Amino acid sequence: MRFGAAFILLFCGGALPASPQAVTAPVQGYVGSNVCKTCHPTVVAGYFKNPHFKQTVAAKDDQKAESGCENCHGPGKDHVEGRGLKSAIKAFSVMEPKTVLDECLRCHSQTLSRANIRRSAHTQNSVVCTNCHGIHKPVSPKGLLAQKQTDLCYSCHTSVKAQFSMPFKHRVNEGFMSCSDCHNPHGAPAPTWRMASRPRMVDQAGNEEPCLKCHTDKRGPFVFEHAAVRVDGCESCHSPHGSTNARLLRRPVILTVCLECHNGLGNFGRRSTGVLPTTSTHNLSDPRYQNCTTCHVRIHGSNADARFLR
Amino acid sequence: MTRLAAFLFAVSAFAQSSDSVGKPRGEDVGNYNVVQSFELGYRFRSVGGDLGKYRSDVNYGNGVRLLRSSLMVHSKEGDGSFFDELLLTTQGLGNDPYESATLRIQKNKLYQYSLLWRENAYFNPGLTISNGLHLLDTNRQMQDHDLVLLPQSSFRFFLGFSRNVESGPGLSTIQLFDSRGDQFPLFSDIRRQTTEYRIGNEIRVMGFRLNWTRGWENFKEDSPTSLTRPSVGENPADGTTLASLQRVEPYHGNSPYWRVALFKEGAKWYAANGRLTYTSGQRAFVQSESALGTNRFGSEANRQVLTFGDARRPVVTGNLTLSLFPTSRITVTNQTSLYQIKMEGNSFYREFNNGDASSAVLPFQYLGIRTFANSTDADVKVTDWLGLRAGYHFSTRRIRSVEALGFEGDPPLTADQAPVSEQENHLHAGAFGLRIKPIKPLTILFESEIGRADKPFLPLSEKNYHVLGGRVEYRKKAVRLSAYTRANYNTNSVSLFAYSARSRQYGADASWAALRWFSFDASYAKLHLDTQGGIVFFFNAARQSGTSVYVSNLHTGHFGARVALRSRAEVYVGLAHIQDVGDGRATATGVPNPATPALFLTAQTFPLRFQSPQARLSIRLHEKVRWNAGYQYYGYHEQFSSLQNYRAHTGYSGILWSF
User: Fold this and answer.
1) Contact yes or no for B164 and A214 at CB 8 A
2) Looking at the complex, does the CB of residue A50 fall below 8 Å from at least one CB of chain B?
3) Is A266 an 8 Å CB contact of chain B?
4) What share of residues in chain B are helix, strand, coil (percent, to 5)?
5) pTM, entire model
6) The complex's ipTM?
7) Of residues A155, A106, A164, the one with CA closest to residue A132
8) Are A264 and A279 in contact, with CB atoms under 8 Å apart?
9) Which residue from B76, B311, B484 is facing A158, i.e. has the nearest CB?
């Protein structure tokens, strides 16, 4: 093992000798992380693996004391003098959700991914940072998640857990994808589809549906767009999490997926004259006409045919 | 909490060991701490029934795999020479259908690099959409590289690169030689590739943070298709035959973009941010196709089609969010959004049939969507145990459409020849919610929303809808109990037919991990959906109309239990059960709804059962070595047809070495 680790270090350029960390005098009620270590040895011992450790390293010498544990938990002098008095320190386990959010956003507010955290459905339902992130004992080094991401999400979203167990599903349980590939748990801007109203936690591929991040061939632009896809989004025909129907379709057969819109009724569609119904050549007593996409193969959009035939 | 986390971590594993198998011990080497583990094993499967459906749903195969591995190197003082953190994880390497690797390497204050590489072997028999005529057996590789320079400074730089490649054989169809001709199988070698380059910067000055990104996304698809031997059509009664076919259709384009965001937070009583994105997409295409054969009347036919042109797609989005905190108990947020997209293209189309040149057609289509939305939400903490929230959301969407057709040599189209269709839809929605916390472990949530749109785009779009939901959760130490319900109703009436969709969900979940050696988790959810919509179609030359009904009643259950014998051995057993009982019919021939045309009887419900029990065992052989084994059964059973049913036994055995 030592040989292996030494090889890794040699490969990466070798290790520098440890530089002694500056120890400074406590200022304004701060006692420094070394004092915290006395009673919280396991937390402090592994702190160098924590992304927050970077803040301590980056701090100037005269800020070292307040850049460690007390950067989040506040000055610890009263807590120490009170022999671990919980009310004398910022203990996140007993904080109100909004206070937790405000504390974390002191540093973490100004990033694009958290721009909508104040209006996110999670915040509105009192699901805040510490509900998902385990700062001291994370399971995942990335994002300091308290559990594996899917388990975190499933613990509240039981119906979504059920959907990802369906025969047809995106491969989330298998580890190929994660919830955050499509969703932003910190809140997302208004969707650019479906009247910009719902869903509210779906991240965007720049400025479009997240589906197009992977399914780039469906993005177009096409000379002949299938307007339903562009206006109301992929969910018009597909259930994105999982489905008992092939290709995540909303119906078990393609015929009804198409005909429920293509009935010519009302003032729907791009011309406001109803969505084009099928013609008399489509005799549904003939099985060949019962699977629309057998002929209309480019159903997401085509450059060669207005009817998506090629 | 830790035990609960470890347990849940174990529960979610899927035919592979991800369960906690003891704490890997890191070793200190110089200024670094190193932790490594890897699990090498063999995976097997035995499938009876429809192998294609199994590959579509599960797809694990036989063979030796590096089931997972991880390497973590951290500098203990945060001042390593070239890096302070190195994390490398892999999963499924060695031909699993779901492979991935992540790498993160960073040096404090200097750089941070992250890589995510994924590969997915995808198989789809496409029975539902084309009687099995559309198959996909492709491989998708995705990689994302991101480099941040000066990550902790007030002046950061970003560089990024992503690639998404899909390749493999596909089976599709082509219809020849006229609109009532037969369809023929068409094999293609799918080759699609998207490449994205990103560069950006973030500046922090005077309490503001400005973030900009410039990106270039290139897409190309070159999937040649050819048929060199005679092919018979899919319909024996049709006389159309195809002797040969050649098609090439390169499709290339790029979507350069700008993304700019400005933030301001930290003030006591407000926070604000804005975002603006612009993407200008364009793609050029050519399609050249040549087909020889006989038409449906038995006469010789040949057809050559040449299509080329380009399409453009500029997209603009803007968001402005303002949050106000007038008191510590009140938060008001407002977001204003603008979205505008235009899709337009020109196409040249010329077709030759049996040597006769048809006129070249110049189709032109335009679709523009502009959406303006505003949402205002207020959150009030009335007392320590009661919180209220309410919101009003408004959006207006304008859709402009132009569809025109010209001919080669004609003068440019006039406004009369290219009529413009315009429509506007307004949505007003109100939301209300409650949070009640009568005692610390107990949380009760209620949410509701009601919306009204005046001109939905499609019959199944939301028009008059409402949502009601509630959740009760009890969480204390290692015990968590929760139950929820949610109903989503939408009615979209038109003069002759009504489209309505009603979905209701109920669920309950319980987990308990109070003992070091035993824990369990169980959940049940019922997902109900019933929809009905008006349909019009032709049946034996007669125009018919009726109601399309779809009813789904899904019962889903999950159970898992873990037993540990000190640190020597761990056993996990689990069960996932999915059952759609449909509308209660045992066969496809019942008539539960007389308004439904007979043709659609098998389409209005789809009862099936999909169950998957599993067991995993982990035994410590040595301080640093464990033997892991697992077994998982998959059973898929459709009620109306047995064509796609299958039973699969899968499993693995591997050695985990952690040090």
Assistant:
1) yes
2) no
3) yes
4) 5, 70, 25
5) 0.90
6) 0.90
7) A155
8) no
9) B484
